[in-house]
Write a structure and sequence with these properties.
The chain is an alpha+beta fold and 427 residues long. It has 16 helices and ten strands. Helix 9 packs antiparallel against helix 11 and helix 13 runs antiparallel to helix 14. The protein is elongated, with a radius of gyration of 36 Å.
Length: 427
């Protein structure tokens, strides 16, 4: 086999003669370093060495992607590893067997998320992966992902979607833990741990008494007279629309009933929309949900909620209470009727989920106790209900009055006299 110093000139001149499967030029300066030319015209750098009494060859890379000097440098590294007893061929085979993060994530979705998570949760996992996570780390081998990589990913996503960035960190952590249970990675090396997340503020909105009254009026008008709808008077076809006083549309009675039940139960939207007649125990005033965000749970029904349920007409062949447009199916959402109703009530910023917060706020404000409020909401963790603790003002007010009264009594008439003087003083 020919020998000579491997350079750009000698590599460019190397050709594979007809009838041969390759032509190899061995470097005259670095023993074991060579370049092979194939009939296809491809040229590949390689190293040859002896290990365990056998002659072996390992590819370094293709000519064009590597210059001769870059290939020589890589060859020195490989030959140096061999001197320490390492096996580069075995290492390369093992490296090829390490899955990418995308491959692990796909298995996580198919074998875990799709089977053990709620459909909405699974759909959110898919969205986060495809839109946020995989474009950044999907092609990387999972064992090459470290905290620095995930920190940069979090920072990149945070520029446009800070909350999604936090959710992405949590999902990466879940995927890593799942992979660790299958011995793909080491649990203690979870790269999502210790990443400082973006600050999140809870979007708590509680209805006041006057707002409840406006919402009640809007619901009543929506199902009786109908709510007005807007027309762009500048549009050429505006003259063909009904007269302003006739521009009203009645809301679907099932949608109105659903909103009333959300107000009176503190239940989640999906729980009300998927509620079935078979789950209602009118005698005991309880709805026994077979499925919810936290699993099986009861919804305790007040007399007002039971009255709403009693007013809803049943549809033969449909087991759902809030029926939808498709036969035998529940209503999918309340977006359009809710938008019209909250606009009529002058509550444009109010979300449907805020009705749940409002239900909880009344319970907490009435000093019913957070454990009771948590039971009504179906919280599985006490800390979830703790967000309403600041609304439980009565015990604090009684405590403040008691302490103030004791201090006032201890300080006697002089203290009260000073208050009177301060109130009557003028500057």
């Amino acid at each position: 086999m020919p020998t000579g110093r491997i350079s750009k000139r000698t590599v460019d001149a190397l050709v594979c003669e007809d009838g041969k499967d390759r032509e190899i030029l061995w470097d005259s300066d670095l023993a074991g370093f060579g370049v092979a030319a194939f009939p296809s015209g491809t040229k590949t750098y390689l190293v040859q060495y002896r290990q365990d009494g056998r002659s072996r060859r390992a590819q370094i890379g293709k000519h064009g992607r590597l210059t001769p000097e870059e290939a020589r440098s890589e060859a020195k590294k490989v030959l140096g590893q061999i001197e320490t007893g390492a096996d580069p061929i075995k290492a390369k085979r093992m490296a090829r067997g390490v899955p990418t993060f995308r491959e692990v994530a796909d298995n996580f979705l198919a074998q875990h998320s799709a089977l053990k998570r709620k459909p909405r949760t699974h759909a959110e996992y898919v969205r986060l992966l495809e839109k946020r996570i995989l474009p950044i780390v999907g092609s990387m081998r999972i064992i090459d992902i470290n905290r620095s990589v995930i920190s940069r990913m979090h920072g990149s996503i945070s520029k446009t979607a800070p909350i999604s960035a936090n959710r992405s960190i949590a999902l990466v952590s879940s995927i890593w833990s799942w992979a660790a249970r299958r011995d793909i990675v080491v649990l203690s090396e979870n790269p999502a741990r210790g990443i400082e997340k973006n600050r999140e503020q809870a979007k708590d909105r509680y209805l006041k008494s006057a707002e409840f009254a406006r919402l009640g009026d809007a619901l009543r008008i929506a199902e009786t007279e109908g709510l007005p709808w807007d027309v762009n008077e500048q549009h050429p076809n505006a003259k063909h629309h009904a007269k302003p006083h006739n521009r009203k549309t009645k809301s679907d009675p099932y949608a109105v009933a659903a909103i009333r039940l959300l107000i009176l139960t503190g239940a989640r939207l999906s729980e009300i929309l998927n509620l079935k007649w078979t789950e209602i125990d009118f005698e005991r005033g309880i709805a026994f949900l077979s499925e919810s965000k936290t699993g099986r749970k009861p919804i305790y029904l007040s007399a007002a909620a039971l009255a709403v349920l009693a007013s809803i007409p049943r549809v033969e062949g449909n087991t759902y209470i809030i029926v939808g447009s498709k036969e035998g199916q529940p209503r999918i959402d309340l977006k359009k009727p809710w938008a019209a109703i909250r606009k009529a009530a002058d509550l444009d910023e109010l979300r449907l989920h805020d009705l749940r917060h409002s239900f909880a706020s009344i319970g907490a404000g009435a000093s019913l106790g957070l454990p009771i409020v948590g039971k009504l909401l179906g919280h599985s963790q006490p800390q979830t209900t703790a967000r309403y603790a600041h609304l439980d003002a009565d015990p604090l007010r009684r405590a403040a009055n008691l302490i103030g009264s004791d201090i006032s009594a201890a300080m006697g008439n002089n203290f009260n006299a000073n208050i009177i003087v301060l109130k009557g003083s003028k500057k």
